[in-house]
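We recall that each integer encodes one residue's backbone shape. We quote one record:
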Amino acid sequence: MAEFRVGEDDFEVDGRPVRLLSGALHYFRVHEEQWAHRLRMLRAMGLNCVETYVPWNLHEPRPGEVRDVAAVGRFLDAAREAGLWVIARPGPYMCAEWENGGLPHWVTGPLGARIRTRDAEFLGCVERWFRVLMPHIVERQIDRGGPVIMVQVENEYGSYGSDAVYLRAVADLLVELGVTVPLFTSDGPEDHMLTGGSIPGILATANFGSHAREAFATLREHRPKGPLMCMEFWCGWFDHWGAEHVVRDPRDAARALREILECGASVNLYMAHGGTSFGGWAGANRGGPLHDGPLEPDVTSYDYDAPIDEFGRPTEKFWLFREVLGGYARQPLPEVPEPPAVLSGPVTARLSAFTPLEGVLEALGGPESEHAVPPSFEELDVDRGLVRYAVTVPGPRAPYPLRASGLRDLAVVYVDGERAGVLTEEEPVLAEPVGGHARVELWVESLGRVNYGPRTGEPKGITGGLLHERQYLHGVRARGLRLDAFTPAAVAGLSSGEPGGAGPGLYRGSFEVAGVGDAGLELPGWGRGFVWVNGFCLGRYWAAGPQGSLYVPGPVLRRGANEIWVLELDRPGPSPVRLASGGGAQSCKG
């Protein structure tokens, strides 16, 4: 057993000063069979610690329906075997460019602005979740022979709120549930963020990507004593659909890392290895200086321009960081592991069966219900997926503009069975007026819930009503389709026909590989949707770019025949779906 503590100037293990050289690696963004390799890569880069969040919504998709929380413990055990300490960040909120910042839709939907406050109902949800989660962390603390050395209270709370009572309640709950290692907070190095997000008597750390000396000077104004740490050194960045691929010059990032260490500080690389937001769990941001502007959905890849790329390979940034970190190592760094195997040669998938979207909804969707006004995704218990809204425009009446007020995020509209256009939050009015009597269907898709800023937790769907001219249309029928409804057993029961020149729906097929290995899956010319390989959801694809292929982990593939499903929500492509051995930076268009 060992003791980890926060000293006046340093972190200490059994009284010996230590510098934490940590890297972020999210267990939920890496296939479990690849954890060991990625953790060895962290050690080879010169790190002695790994940091991870825990996404509440992944593990509790419905109230009390807990899924594989034991994965947290298995990852902590893998880190210990790799010789790494662990910084645990259990939330309840985590940001991380993840759907809803990790908060379940069934919490944020009913509570609205009461989330992340002292509100008794929200704190009650947090306590019930933490009583399930925290035993997996508590029993693996360093003073019990495990790798966990610190636990975070909330996350960047000063960027969101100022409820000191809430923060103290979360900290007290963690202690009540058995946390004995030091607690900490992390916030941007700005006065309002540090005053809003830090807790007296608990270590405060800062998050930034450059100008370390200025950032630490601000932190010192708030905390004159205690070890300095950059809890998130943003050595790369993430991408949004429809925007340019973001990269950071490796030499610039290495200089910024060196500056942090020259300040005598500890550091956590965010991200050391980003991985992938499998399963459609990528979040979204709001643009503008106040993060309340247009929606900016995050791409599926979380490569993050990190030193270890999405395929687990070392980049130029990795080698430069290894050189910087090696100067602070007590012994020679381990050899860099061999890169994972890749698929040998391109493979084309044959899509031989098709079920129209209407048939998919009929077989896999929830029950249809009628409402006075359009219900939100949250009211229909849809986390990731889509909702079909149907309404009748009464008649006879002249054509008037049709508006989906408060639309979040995208709707494909059909009038009397014919495609009439696509609506968005910025363009919520149908191009051609609609006359009555007419049946209107709107297939609304969530492009990812906001994960950062004041609009975190906002509902999805048609949130302001359907209007014909200025008149609300009532009697709206709605039916939801969740992504987790696409299980092998459920999909096997779908009735199917030949794809032909079919439109939106589920395309099914197969491909064969002689040997397994990592691959990139490409859908040239296809519109927007989701892909599953052998029942494993790779995530969203979208012709909007910049991401041009989806990462396929080698462990997902099987020698011989493999099954593939493509849920196309817009228009199918003229080209076949194919797998190639490339990837990483190549998965994004420059």
